[in-house]
Amino acid sequence: MLLKRFAPLLAAAGLLASTVPLLSATQASAAPAADHLRQKPAWHRCSPELPASYECATLKVPLDYRRPDGRTIDLAISRIKSENPAKRHGAMLLNPGGPGGSGLDLPLMMNEAMPKEVRDQYDLIGFDPRGVGASSPITCGLDEAEQNFDRAYRPETFGSDVTWAHTVADKCREKAGSVLPYITTRNTARDMDTIRAVLGERKLSYLGYSYGTYLGAVYSQMFPDRTDRFVLDSGVDPQRIWRGMIQVWATEAEPAFARWTQWAAQRSAEYGLGDSPRAVSETFWGLVARADKEPIDLEGLKVDGDMIRAARGVFFYPAQATPLVAALKAAAEGRPLPEGMTLTELKRLLTGGAAADPASDNGTAVFWAVVCGDTGSWPRYTEQYERDAAKDKARYPLYGDFASNIKPCAFWDRPLEAATPMNKKANVLTVQNEWDSQTPLVSGQGLHRALKGSRMVLAAGGEGHGVYLADPTSCANAPVHAYLTTGKLPAQDVTCQNPPSGERQRGSLTPSKPLPIPSGPGRF
């Protein structure tokens, strides 16, 4: 499977929320006597089944960079070296997003996807961020139900939502309490700089998607003199971490929904959902109300109105949302599914195709560690979550209550560090689709504004999460290729026009995604 599971900052002044002294970029990356900087990777073939050029190694890095000679954790890294030493520019570190996404196999995928003129210039470096996968993984011991945070607000169930959030925080504290405070974006950025130093590179190039854009942005602020060619694809707005990044799923689902109603109305003869945007909207909300009274039975899967609303991400793809709603309407009325729609596909579209892995909560544990541990701006009072959820359910009816409902961060321990201020120049390239469900356009624009000196490539009409190489037909690929090849940013921001998605994806309900960009409804 090529897709992997695994989306409000009050920007502080860069001081600790506690009395622990904040590390400067120099302090965080120096300590030349420390063993973790003297080590040499013991590269070995990752697997007999995989190419010999794909090598793996394990580094030891400090759990707490304030104590570089103290407790260490493992950091799993991988690489595929450039086959053209004469054209080699340096090392490019890769991150697929998450937080909680594994990036160890990204060199394999990028080695195939990148054009030769880009590929020749870099040793491709993958890694599992601290706490993830092969890098001293953490767990909270959560079951499948506890991993799901798509919880609609209802006054009668808010008490159980509070219990859920408290339970998740307590379980994480019990299972991984000695490590959790250090599973943060700032520490992962320090790990990145350790990788750079261990590889013997003066500077680091980087390609990061989704959450990886925020990780790259933090690195550019902590280590500006070591930041080389950085591509930040599908941007997280630093001013919204992290509650605001969840809430933006709700605000930006509304224009996507309105765009969908227009698309569906233009195809009323084919789908029968209504011949005007208003009529399509009425059909949808009538279906939601009906499912709330009597859930739609899809061979054992009970689909209520909340489950339909939770599929908000699909409305960023009108060519998918329209047959989905038509199929749900048929099922609710006891009619056969429309031609071309299978029960498996219907369930996949409803769930986003990326449900939490019931066998492991590693990705979920890291997600909460980072989202709760990066910033102390989460409200601490349950009453605020209830007020916000009720208000936003009315303002943003598709997903507002889900986004603003209580999260485990309300009961998390206070972070050891404040969030990273974005006050240094960053000559990096940001890339964005116009219609991205996980890091919507306003979020990508916020990242671009925050990083002074950055340029933005916007794929107008582009749909989906992840742009560069994630969609081989994207108009954004060419300017990113040029930047990675020459190191020269565009003279100004670039807006290009993507081919109409309905034409490119006609006949397929699943957009092409050859790279492991986070795709689930609850990840960045």
Structure characterization notes:
The chain has helices spanning 25-29, 35-38, 106-113, 116-119, 144-147, 158-176, 185-199, 211-222, 243-265, 268-271, 277-293, 305-310, 318-332, 343-351, 362-373, 382-395, 400-404, 441-450, 477-486, 501-504; strands at residues 44-45, 55-62, 72-80, 90-95, 122-127, 204-209, 227-233, 296-298, 301-303, 429-435, 455-463, 494-497. A hairpin with a 2-residue loop joins β8 and β9. It has 20 helices and twelve strands.
- Hey, roughly how much beta strand do the residues contain? 5-15%
Coarse morphology: globular
The percentage helix is 25-40%
> Which residues sit in consecutive blocks of at least 5 with pLDDT less than 50?
1-33, 503-514
What integer value in Å does the Rg equal?
Answer: 23 Å
Q: How many strand units?
A: 12
SS summary, helix count? 20
In terms of structural class, how would the helical and strand content be classed? Answer: alpha/beta
Mean pLDDT: 89
In order across it, which strands form the biggest sheet?
Answer: 1-2-3-5-4-6-7-10-11-12
Tell me the span between the first and last alpha carbons: 19 Å
The biggest sheet, with number of strands, parallel, antiparallel or mixed sense and barrel status, is: 10 strands, mixed
Question: What would you say about this model in short?
Answer:
With about 525 residues, this protein is an alpha/beta fold. About 40% of the residues lie in helices and about 15% in strands. About 50% of the residues are buried.
Give the topology, please.
Blueprint: H1 25-29, H2 35-38, E1 44-45, E2 55-62, E3 72-80, E4 90-95, H3 106-113, H4 116-119, E5 122-127, H5 144-147, H6 158-176, H7 185-199, E6 204-209, H8 211-222, E7 227-233, H9 243-265, H10 268-271, H11 277-293, E8 296-298, E9 301-303, H12 305-310, H13 318-332, H14 343-351, H15 362-373, H16 382-395, H17 400-404, E10 429-435, H18 441-450, E11 455-463, H19 477-486, E12 494-497, H20 501-504
Parallel strand pairs: 4-5, 4-6, 6-7, 7-10, 10-11, 11-12
Antiparallel strand pairs: 1-2, 2-3, 3-5, 8-9
Helix pairs in contact: 7-8, 9-11, 9-13, 11-13
